[in-house]
Amino acid sequence: xxxxxxxxxxxxxxxxxxxxxxxxxxxxxxxxxxxxxxxxxxxxxxxxxxxxxxxxxxxxxxxxxxxxxxxxxxxxxxxxxxxxxxxxxxxxxxxxxxxxxxxxxxxxxxxxxxxxxxxxxxxxxxxxxxxxxxxxx
Length: 137
Prior knowledge:
alpha/beta
């Protein structure tokens, strides 16, 4: 995931529920001192995302948005952000649902987006995680 964040504007971390996506995202955020972590499972955070998507995604550095599928209205604002700022490592998005099936992703180019499929079993420990990167067409 570190490599993906180093050269891609938006990285998605997808996988089954309880696979360890949120834990892996928090570990990645710790490597970025300016990281902002937003948990959409929190009702107040979700409400803020839905009420002002553009304001919600404003940040410097890395923004982690956990359970992004809960607020699909954020995708357009994320796209605008990465269209106007080519820096890599702007967003790390996690989702239990198949995030890439959501309608905004066909509009994002492979230079903007990379999916990291999580095959994480917390019982085996984070050091033994299996992560594969896929560049999207």
